[in-house]
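call fold(seq) -> tokens
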Amino acid sequence: MSGDPHFAEISIIELLPNYRLYDITSSGLTHSYEYLEEEFNPKRASPLITAKNFGIIKLNWVIRKIALQIYNIDGRVLFEKTIKIQ
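ret:
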């Protein structure tokens, strides 16, 4: 997880077949670019989220899943990507 561009997104880079790198960018609890309409990223798998936000990574070893989540400042999930752990 990284931050500081004042928006949020989740990007996926396919390194090898069935081997992906997930990049979660989340920043903007106090500042955001709410009027930003586009930021070039051909690897983006989520919408470009320009509202104030924060990110959470949830691991569930029982059901073998990871949830990558972006929330708004009111705690509502704006985007979630679930990954099955092999």
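The two ends are 21 Å apart (CA to CA).
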